[in-house]
Specification:
The complex is a heterotetramer. Chain A is mainly alpha-helical. Chain A has a single domain, classed as Helix Hairpins. Chain A has helices at 7-27, 31-56, 62-92. The longest helix of chain A has 31 residues, at 62-92. The radius of gyration of chain A is 17 Å and the shape is elongated. By secondary structure, chain B is mainly α. Chain B folds into two domains: 5-54; 83-136. Chain B has five helices and no strands. Chain C contains 17 helices and four strands. Chain C has helices at residues 2-5, 7-23, 27-63, 79-88, 100-116, 135-143, 145-156, 160-191, 196-204, 214-217, 219-232, 244-247, 257-281, 293-314, 320-348, 353-359, 366-417; strands spanning 122-124, 127-128, 349-350, 362-363. Chain C has a two-stranded antiparallel sheet. In chain C, helix 2 (7-23) runs antiparallel to helix 3 (27-63), helix 3 (27-63) packs parallel to helix 14 (293-314) and helix 11 packs antiparallel against helix 15 (320-348). Classes of the chains: A mainly alpha, B mainly alpha, C mainly alpha, D mainly alpha. Chains A and D meet through helix 1, helix 2 and helix 3 of A and helix 1, helix 2, helix 3, helix 4 and helix 5 of D.
Chain lengths: 105, 143, 418, 230
């Protein structure tokens, strides 16, 4: 499975995915698209967790457990975040993060 | 990329020998799924193309119209979707994610003591409590 | 006897040996062999699809006192081929406003992922596409791809009714995926492995199992799995997605020609997949006396499919609110309670001396364990049914009262108008 | 090149390409589909990492559940098409992302890619050895066959991750309660009743404050007035 794939390949791909997600989270004009960026970042984190688990401590379930908890956190985050977005849309008719400035002085 | 006959004989018990054989070389059971994915995509992807080549193609404006009971399409595709759908998906996500964690436990069931069972029962009851809240709030009522 | 029993395995080995002789050992031979095996899996799935469409039309016709297809070939056995020819020669229209690639890809995705289900199914001892150590979980995971394809079809058609139909379908599918998931867990728990081969061996008693199919040990799980499986594949009486009178034809109203055929194929393959899964998980798969193993699997699968056809032929379609209520307020809580019950029973009543030494509990004979599991599962089922029957009757009476009031009010209005 | 390397490169092209399309496309539904393609590639990485269970879990949780949430939310908010792809701070965002990526690239790359700062592979006081791990023979160990079994046992063991499991259940419960409360549809009657109740509470509070300390209330009003001016 690992024939000829060094660990840093995974780390670089995960880093690229993380940075793409970061860009998405910072530069999109739609809150749902922002959350998509966050999901990409969480996926990148999970690739790293499982890559380190495989290459450094394959006997220990620690890496697997952490990856599983990232899954749960990602699900809860998406559920609550999207619910908030739906609610905001219902009240404001817009989900552009730049236009939602009720809290600004 | 080589294989040893002993390993094949040992693994033949696990699966169709003519499939396990090459998998030994790649040390994986998943390669076959990848190959099936590609083969199925090729075989099934060709079907619409064949259909396009065989069947007569005489499109006209009326044929290419959206089929909405013979009426002309009015307005956008979006009718008012209700948040109800989202709530169903929400409870589904809850049980889906919770269920994923139950699978490793189920595999390890025989080597777990009663405390583990109690922990998992509490976990399952927590999920059930969320479902109970959703039912109580009427989130799952179809009106 | 051995020759017949190992027929499929020997043919496969022969083909593999021939290809290795031709190409030599190495990557090329590996890939060719795997591709041939993949084509074999695809052939099994689509052959099953063709056979089942014919069988279903014939049997449902008999149930409804009709004859069914009888023109193409003797007894109409060539009907599936005639259907395929018809679909291939039909014009394939794409709506002008469709989202082109999404619209084109959706049927392909439905069919491809339905095919992938069959890669892990053990057809006979030693005849399995690949014996994954997460087989049961893999099938559930692959099954969830169809919801995405349905949403793609609904969106891609750019049609109010298909999008609405897709939403309703997905609300139904995701709902019934939960009891399926929860009712596979007890099977895995009592097997100690997610591999489908291990699950079958546990039921046939090869590796110190009970030698009893899981349907005897967990009738409640089996029933819940079967019903949610039927709902998951959207078959009658849960075929709201094709309720012609309500939402035209659901999400695939815009599809014609072979793309429609592919969606049908995906749905049938999913139904077949559920039947195969049920026979593997709860009926002991290929295990059985006298007959060769692959024949047993075919027989069991066809038996399960017969039940599906029977339900389709006799039951009226349920309403969508009943459908969703039944799932979320009955099946899911019942499955969780059942799961907890089995978890605790399995720890209290132990039949394996080694486990007894490790974890304690009450040591009993294996058959006593089977009886305890089966009896408590049945008791829970009867209890739940009793509670639900009372509740549903109350609801229905209340509903009837409301309807009666409305009717009276309408009559009064009508009288006043006169 | 081994087969695994080719598969890896294909998967990273699909995954990263889809990820790029997620953050640039104008159509939110297409963005969701590209997100699914990206999840699919990540699931392939898990298979390459011999974590088959997580590949299937990725399929079930991300592709089967979370992306459905995204698509439903997209439809409910009716903002699918014609989205402006970039906001006003996109240059800054791009700059930060690229800088971060370059930094990580330098850290994670093997020694022959030598860092322009620090000594060899030393960065931030720690020695980054892992970049070399798979190249050392004998260092890379196999995943034990009982991997899932061990994982399941650790997950429910109170001395390992049992508490974390219970807490994550609690997190899911709280998250769902919050999400249902926020997203559920209120009937117009309920909304009006809620508004009336809030107004009544506000008035009551104001009256109480006025009765309790009139001078404080005046000062508070002045402050509020001031703030309003700014």
């Amino acid at each position: 499975m690992l024939n000829g794939i060094p660990l840093y390949w995974y780390l670089i791909v995960a880093a690229a995915m993380f940075c793409i997600g970061l860009y998405g989270a910072l530069a999109r004009t739609n809150a749902i698209a922002v959350l998509m960026g966050v999901e990409l970042m969480l996926n990148a984190v999970n690739i790293n967790l499982l890559a380190f688990w495989r290459y450094l401590t394959p006997e220990s379930p620690a890496g697997l457990a952490f990856a599983a908890f990232v899954f749960i956190v990602a699900a809860a985050e998406a559920a609550v975040g999207l619910a908030l977005i739906i609610s905001v849309y219902r009240n404001m008719n817009s989900i552009d993060p730049e236009k939602l400035d009720l809290m600004k002085l | 990329m080589s294989y040893a006959p002993d390993d094949i004989r040992r693994k033949a018990k696990d699966g169709l020998a003519f499939i396990i054989l090459p998998l030994k070389a790649m040390r994986t059971d998943y390669a076959f799924i990848g190959v099936t994915l590609i083969v199925a995509c090729a075989l099934i992807g060709v079907v619409p193309i064949l259909n396009y080549l065989i069947a007569p193609q005489t499109p006209n404006k009326a044929k290419r119209e959206t089929y909405e009971c013979g009426m002309e399409t009015v307005g956008d595709t979006w009718v008012q979707f209700r948040a109800q759908y989202y709530l169903f998906a929400l409870i589904f996500v809850l049980f889906d994610v919770g269920g994923v964690l139950l699978f490793p436990f189920a595999v390890a069931y025989n080597s777990v003591n009663l405390w583990g069972v109690i922990v998992v029962s509490l976990f399952a009851l927590t999920l059930l409590a969320a479902l109970g809240y959703a039912i109580k709030k009427g989130a799952l009522n179809w009106e | 006897m051995d020759i017949i029993n190992n027929l499929v395995k020997d043919i496969g080995d022969g083909i593999a040996a021939a290809i290795i002789g031709l190409l030599g050992q190495g990557l090329a031979a590996d890939i060719v062999i795997m591709a041939i095996a993949a084509i074999a899996v695809f052939a099994v799935a689509s052959g099953g699809f063709a056979a089942l469409t014919y069988a279903e039309r014939k049997i449902v016709a008999r149930i409804q006192d009709r004859v069914g297809p009888n023109q193409a070939g003797p007894f109409g056995v060539l009907q599936p081929i005639a259907d395929a020819v018809k679909l291939f020669t039909k014009e394939d229209t794409t709506p002008a406003s469709a989202d082109f690639w999404v619209y084109q890809l959706a049927p392909i995705i439905v069919a491809v992922f339905a095919t992938l289900t069959f890669t892990v199914v053990p057809f006979a001892p030693g005849v399995v596409g690949t014996n994954l150590n997460i087989g049961a979980f893999y099938i559930i995971a692959i099954g969830s791809a169809s919801t995405i394809a349905i949403l793609m079809a609904g969106w891609g058609s750019n049609n109010k009714y298909s999008l609405l139909g897709a939403f309703r379908t997905v609300a139904q599918l995701v709902g019934y995926e939960v009891p399926m998931l929860l009712n596979i867990i007890p099977v895995i728990m009592l097997t100690g492995s997610m591999s489908l081969v291990d699950i079958i061996e546990r039921q046939t008693g090869v590796n110190g199992g009970w030698g009893v199919p899981f349907i005897v040990i967990m009738p409640l799980s089996a029933l819940a799995f079967l019903i949610s499986g039927i709902a998951e594949t959207g078959r009658s009486p849960f075929d709201l997605l094709e309720a012609e009178s309500e939402i035209v034809a659901g999400f695939h109203v815009e599809y014609s020609g072979m793309k429609f055929g592919l969606i049908m194929m995906g749905e049938y393959m999913n139904a077949l997949g559920v039947a195969v899964m049920f026979s593997v998980l709860f009926l002991g798969g290929y295990g059985g006396p006298i007959l060769p193993p692959y024949l047993w699997l075919v027989l069991k699968t066809f038996g399960v499919f017969l039940v599906l056809m029977w339900l389709r032929g006799t039951l009226p379609r349920v309403r969508i609110d009943q459908l969703l209520n039944m799932n979320w307020k009955f099946f899911v809580p019942l499955s969780v309670i059942n799961l907890i019950m089995i978890m605790i029973l399995g720890k209290v009543f132990v039949s394996d001396p080694a486990l007894f030494k490790a974890n304690g509990g009450i040591l009993i004979q294996p058959f006593a364990q089977v009886i305890i599991f089966g009896a408590s599962s049945l008791a829970l089922l009867i209890l739940a049914l009793a509670v639900v029957t009372r509740r549903v009757r109350k609801d229905r009476l209340a509903e009837a009262e409301v309807l009666q009031q409305r009717r009276e009010a309408n009559q009064q209005i009508a009288a006043a108008m006169h | 090149m081994t087969v695994a390397q080719i598969v890896f490169i294909l998967l990273s092209v699909v995954g990263l390409g889809a990820a790029l399309l997620v953050v640039t496309t104008r159509n939110l539904f297409h963005a969701a589909l590209y997100l699914i393609a990206s999840f699919f590639a990540v699931s392939g990485f898990y298979i390459l990492l011999e974590a088959g269970f997580f590949a299937a879990a990725q399929f079930l949780v991300y592709i089967g559940a979370i992306s459905i949430l995204f698509i439903f939310a997209t439809m409910l908010t009716r903002t699918v098409r014609g989205m402006v792809p970039r906001n006003s701070q996109w240059q800054a965002a791009l700059f930060v992302s690229v800088i971060l990526f370059v930094a990580m690239l330098l850290i994670f790359s093997p020694a022959n890619f030598s860092l322009p700062f620090g000594q060899g592979r030393t960065f931030g006081g720690a020695e980054w050895q892992f970049a070399e791990v798979p190249n050392k023979p004998g260092v890379l160990r196999d995943v034990p066959a009982s991997s899932i079994n061990d994982f399941g046992r650790a997950l429910v063991d109170l001395n390992q991750y049992g508490i974390a499991l219970l807490l994550s259940g609690l997190l899911l419960l709280i998250g769902m309660v919050g999400a249902i409360w926020v997203a559920r549809e209120r009937k117009p009657r309920e909304i009006l009743a809620e508004r009336a109740r809030m107004a009544a509470e506000e008035a009551e509070e104001r009256a109480k404050a006025a009765a309790k300390a009139p001078e404080v209330s005046v000062a508070h009003a002045a402050v509020a007035h001031d703030a309003h001016h700014h």
